């Protein structure tokens, strides 16, 4: 081997060995040099974290970016930060060199000021991060708009480790998904796509991000909190429909456009345009008038027709029953359906004037009413029956006359500016105007002279004022030409009365030639700037001048002649200035003249509640008052310069260093202190000293007295006083506006100590006072759990209770004679869980503290209320039979059952099982613990003290699974039942990482969340059990076929597992193979193709209900789709309730572990294969998605039912030939199974008429090679279950 080859080989070997090192656990990388630390480096190397490694590579790539100096500030930008469109972020990943229980995440909003990135004050949050097995997960963390700095922090011993990441939250509104719902079908409504709908009513729905409002063609849609939106019903017009969709939030707005065609077979034309003497007008939905004199015209047609491979060129076109014209030069666009197959043709045809003569009377004079009757005759490519596209239109002729053809509203026009394509406009007909005066652009056949345009209300004929808008450049009526929509002359319409009005437009003395329906609803409103009803206004009385500036405007009152008698009342005192408001003719609004309202003890505004009232009379311009408008707002002024007590509490002095008050994690400097128990208003403890924590605001002096003795006093704006004989040290953080104080090691000899804390504001003399009573007892022990939770009584809703007893120097602590275990994280703390409490009575429990010289005894009374409700739990040793919650749960096991570890089958010690009724909001079964702490909210005293205790999080990986939409076709008809055996042993006995079995656990516990259990510690019963659940008595007997059981497993997946229903007892029974959540549900609604099925509705509904046959998509069950081999195998496994038997050793080469489809899963295929129900083709190929034949189905079923099959010989062959006319088509291997299924009447043939004319007796075909639809397979499955699995389905189901 050459030296070069050796070098290459060694390099490859080194690279291979290095690749075996998991990246997240490699040694922490040094901080990369970057521009602010090494100016010689032109660009930075890839950024890497040191201790926290997110799974999201984009986020990981922002780690520890240097932005702290002017030279490096540009490093953070849109191109380097991770961009989020959502206001929440979830992060998972791995960590190293820190303790999992110490991890927190701090999110700060960053603002760039000059060359510096600055964290905004009061714009940060800190979240505790869940961590198990070197994996961390934090969910739905709120982001701030703009740039966010995410700091992960953890500690190991006294060392603190951090990694920093950067996220840019773009709050711009966007559409994640948009669909149009028509005729029960949801179609994607994408930009540029052309859809064809066949129903005249449609709805638009979808999902938004960062948007709170959405309108569709001006109509408001319903927007839900989760971003889903549902538009109003829309009536489509035949042809092309355009949708203008505007989505917005508080700061941004985006408008998108979509379109769809509506195909109406009775009105297939999407556009019909006539051109005469160069003037083109559309006949769709209108009868226009032409004023040309020519007797010829051209016709432009556009229509939709069902797709045919043949072109419409060459089709026969007949207009007004005239001479047929052969279409040439047609432009055709093929429009596909949602599956991509051609569905329609959009055809455009230009008809020359030779083929379209205008209609004349017998004297060859053009008719004033011109019909346009169109017929297109088309013969399909298949040679089928010809069909015709027919429709009728018309227009009017008024040769040489001056007429109004149309008008458009200019809603925001000011009467002065130029008008172009960007000037907003809309058709006047159907418009809604905001004032009685508005501008329009009029399209006339000829230019109108001054005074020619007339407008009048119909039907009364009352005239309306029409004014011309004069163009100063021409001194003529302003004329707009060359734009897309706004061509014509500009006029101002005035004096329109309120309501829906029909306005008729005419020229001179001619009759009306254009009418428009216009709605005017006057909106009278007084708008105040920055002042609204219920508002709370904060002031600081230490500032010399405090005031509110009153300003605003009148909206909708019109001209200055209409407003009379304005009045302003401030706290019932008339404060109307003159003038109060000034009319602005450019906006047609009144502006309230800005005025100062001072906040003083003498008014007009005061601390507390205030009222401002404005009254305005709205007239007809004269003396008649049409409306009296009153605007009144009530608001509150509060003085933030008042002292406020926020928190006063005693704390247990820690054995190690105290966390500073500046710590961002509040729980670090306010650790749980169970040694100080609040009893009847006093904190009772055996400690001889404690830490006093004080938090407040608005104080110039803080004074602490014990009785009459002052032990501490300070001004929050000055230095902290030195310690004295009463405490060892004072810690302070903040200012007079907000501060925290901690007095360390406050001495408390045995007895009662009352402390008075006084906050004084020297500006206004206000004080705030709080008292704290601490009672120090010289006793040998304290019971920290259970504690009184209802008055002085201990009442629980479970048959077990946790004892946590602090007993200094005790040799042993016994609970009803059982020795408690000593906690490893606390000195002198003993814990024991006592089970077997008697229901609905007082349980007397003996506690014995065994000391060095004597024993101390006490009796504790605990009342166990057994009424089943959410939060109720029951614990007992795992046995053969369990009846829980008044037999709502009945669980039985074979006598030889044991608990085994799932990943390796190791038999585990028998443990207590825990049963619970879960909170339907989040699945929690333990709402309040025995320390009287709210689980998920309070710091939990059961958590390890390493170095501080924490709360047990309600983890979203589990709590989100209780969203009712997850099983949206079903409605829950029982409680959520929790059944747990806890976690098995970790590692081996004697190993450093060994952990004992836990026994039954609550789903959220100190061991972690159910969906995050260590896979190596998951346990299952060694033998299959039987579980019977009670469901609501209100469910009627006839609904039994639609009742089923759902299981939520440790992967966080809800599974429909069916069950045998006892309709009389209102119970349902299922096999029990794994621990988790169980609930009973009933089908709420199915699918249209089930409800409308001709013969299989009930059986399909039943199989869907039981989870035996799932739907193929979200919108359709797929009743008449062909069933596949994989789906039929899954149907057998599910419907027979077979116990899953699978691992990663796959039987078939094409069915890999983890693979699945909408209708089958890998585990089901593997279970069927190992049971011998299915076999593959050559080369170990199963072909799960291949269609299933009837003879293959017969073989699978006969094997699944272990039927005794006849000998496959000539005798059987003769029997089959006699039974079925198509026996020759059957494969030999299938004959015994076909015979067995036919004899059992599970699979029978279909009758056919004999081809021999002399034979009248009907014969039977089995159709062995025919495919089966899902409905046919369902019928076979129901027959099988009714015959061989009694009780699985109602006997009368057919």
Automatic annotation (TrEMBL):
<dbReference type="InterPro" id="IPR001119">
    <property type="entry name" value="SLH_dom"/>
</dbReference>
<dbReference type="Pfam" id="PF00395">
    <property type="entry name" value="SLH"/>
</dbReference>
<feature type="domain" description="SLH">
    <location>
        <begin position="1083"/>
        <end position="1144"/>
    </location>
</feature>
<feature type="signal peptide">
    <location>
        <begin position="1"/>
        <end position="28"/>
    </location>
</feature>
<feature type="domain" description="SLH">
    <location>
        <begin position="1217"/>
        <end position="1291"/>
    </location>
</feature>
<feature type="domain" description="SLH">
    <location>
        <begin position="1145"/>
        <end position="1211"/>
    </location>
</feature>
<protein>
    <submittedName>
        <fullName>S-layer homology domain-containing protein</fullName>
    </submittedName>
</protein>
<dbReference type="InterPro" id="IPR051465">
    <property type="entry name" value="Cell_Envelope_Struct_Comp"/>
</dbReference>
<keyword id="KW-0732">Signal</keyword>
